[in-house]
Amino acid sequence: MAKEALVSFAVERIGDMLIQEASFFKGVRGQVDRLHKDLRAMQCFLEEADKKQEEDSRVRNWVSEIREAIYDAEDIIDMFILNAQSLRTHSFPERAFKKLTNRYKVGKKVEAIQLGLQDISNRREALGIKNIGEGTSTSRSAQMLQDLRRSTPHAEEHVVVGLENEAYKLVNQLIGRDQRRRVISLVGMGGIGKTTLAKKVYNHTQVVECFPDYRAWAYVSQDCRPRDVYMQIIKQICSSTKEQVEMAEKLQEHELGDFLHGHLKDNRYLIVLDDVWSPADWSCLAKKSSNDPDCLGSVFPDGGKGSRILLTTRYKEVASHADAFLDIDAESYLPDLKELGEKKVDKCNGLPLAIVLLGGLLSKNMSHIEWKKVHDNMSAYLAKEGQIAGVMTMLKLSYIDFPSYLKPCFLHLSLFPEDYVISTRKLLLLWISEGFVLQQDRQSMKDTAEIYLNELINRNLIQVVRTSVNARVMECRVRDFIQELAIEKAKEHNFIGTNIVVDPHLFPSSSPSLFSSKSRRQSIYSDFERYASIEHYSTPYLRSLLYFNLGGICRISQLDFITKCFKVLRVQDLEGLGIENVPSIIGELIHLRYLGLRHTGLKMLPLSIGNLRNLQTLDINNLKRVSDVIWKITNMRYLYIEEQEEDDPLKIDTVQNLQILSGITFNQWIRNNSSKLTCLEKLKIEGRCELVEEVEFSNSIAKLHSSLKSLYLKASDESSIPSLAMSSCPHLCKFDIKGRMQKLTETFKFPRNLSQLTLEACRLECDPMPILEKLPNLLTLRLRAGSYLGKEMHVSADGFPRLQILQLLRFKELVWLNILKGAMPWLMQLEFDNFKIEIFGLNELLNLVEVKIPFSSLLAMILFHKIEDSFWGLTRIAGAEGGMHICRQKGLTLASSKQALEQLADFLEQCSRLNFV
After folding, report:
1. Tens digits of residue pLDDT in 832-851
2. What sign does the CA torsion over 587, 590, 592, 593 have?
């Protein structure tokens, strides 16, 4: 059930504080408890209000008043706890007097908030806001959104820019020789051009000739109604007479599915289903026929005549149910324009509507200087001309469709700079620290946060920049127009203020805005010294402060102002800012949950860091030594302290809520009682380990048997990784080793459930494959530089029964990989970076669909084009290392798959013979 999300989170947090900070509320607990109950009661009306606030300014103001009241309550309670904490150092008489004074003040403030809530509640009925369950009304905004999205195949389109290549690929998919019925999906964010491209292809001459009689277009929408969709199709099929259509209108929904099935089963047809919102909608549409209810596609039969179904969707979950899909992204739109014009189109992120509006603006007789001004502040120019409304209206209405738990995560994206590459690890931890992530049974909050992130990605609101070898998102960015919506909505909710400080040299078109006293979050882009010099006493209730280094070196000598001005701060991230020292008064920020000091050059943390009893995440690296006070921070969940310069003792076994520990040294680890760390799921140990006793170390890992899921051991210098008996960790699924090892047969007993293994710099002299191939559940194997020093590796016939991903990188000596028939039956992805490696048995890997290889040679690309048009597709891998990504077509027959693999093997053999590197 949807609620006004930010209000809900704040109310829940007040309830949590009543439990966790019970000792501070003596004397006022009754009042604060009643306030919490009043706020929870107010939530009962927010679902209806959430639907209406986009279309009724009175309702919007009413919700805003509730939000402000809850924010005020949160501020009062946070400050009360802070003041009560500070009194502990005072003498008894002074402490007793101030306690009474503080309780009286907070009581009066709570009373004032309760009176305000009563007044707000009295105005509820006048606004027509009902309680949950008393009835609902159709949202005018939702209907408006559906009307805007509704499409027909014959609607007049503006000139299409940059879709020629996509149209060519799609036409070939539709008119291809494959006689099976195929489902093809177009996926991309709202407004990016899916429907435009589908219309262009639907009306293409070759497509019309290929499907002369049975060709239909149906608009689905979020409100998927199979009966309406079927009737749209039936009315467009040539052989359907008026009488048949009238008869069909009288049928039940499942009977209508049978009727449509009967008309399609003996014919070659093309059906376009525009704007499909969920896999369930597609399944529902396809299964409504009673002829064969268990067969997906029974409404749309596979008669072996080359029929096609084309779906357009903004969700990748839908696209994954198709036989093939084309992802329309900003990368697709690179029209042959010049200089500034090219940059402007790129700034539109491929949104056809935005490109059309921009074209209309620039069609005026403008000088080069004026074009440059438009480029520097395109959004402002479009808004000035009243042109941006069309783009933003569509995006705003899409915002209504968000589930409540996603809204704060989406608004949080407003804090990041334009086109900034975001670390997903940091993003998820920030969401958790902000309180946006709900605790789920038997699922860590970090896993839940990752689900939220993937949902935003599947909605095409976040763009993936980099993924791991097993397809987890490592980096992402937010599209320009999407971020503008996030900023606008965030300001409406007082989620952020109009207070982003930027470097005027880097951003000449920007200027700092006045700070809002209600601002909850601020971002600083580059010029931190300038930010530090500004008066900050107007924002005493700031909760989050993020710094982004967008270029150059920025240093700060004093951070005292942060603690003095922002006493209830929860999130402080200063990554990339040069910091000489952290003042000891940081220990007064008792509400702090996240402290990010990575890449700051800081060498020591003050001992007062141990006073941050609510700290959940500490992210720092390259310290000279870690102050031995972490044991005091019992609420810590995520501790990152990589690359310590010194190996001093560090007590952490009292931090029993710890879930991720990254960067503790071998010597520090064995001095702790690991059996107390019952929540630890991810552990990275690094440093020198020659003095570590192997049995003791192995036992310390074995004590994590109930929780440990990921282990990374990184030995420095020439020291060897200690031996381990890993079989005692049944939940361990990911294991990374970087450092010298002894023979695998003598030392490591891998757990049966291990699914991902990485070896690097192990300097193994014996072929590791005979040992590793016996791991029954291994899905991903990454062998990197120095992991094996031999020249040959052999995989036996039954080896790697479940392996899906194999990576061989930066091998100097390896020249031969022999894969016997029957080995790696499920291998789907192969990656290597040296054509000197000859791979035998490649043509037996029938499930291999992706190969990542180096492609710096133009001749190699020419060779590949000989096979590209048959079974394989080619894309260039972004990044400094480059390379190519070869993908096999989906849905090939067994014979075609064998032929495709023979082509691939022949191609790689030619590259090896020519010694492409």
Report:
1. 888 788 899 998 999 998 88
2. positive
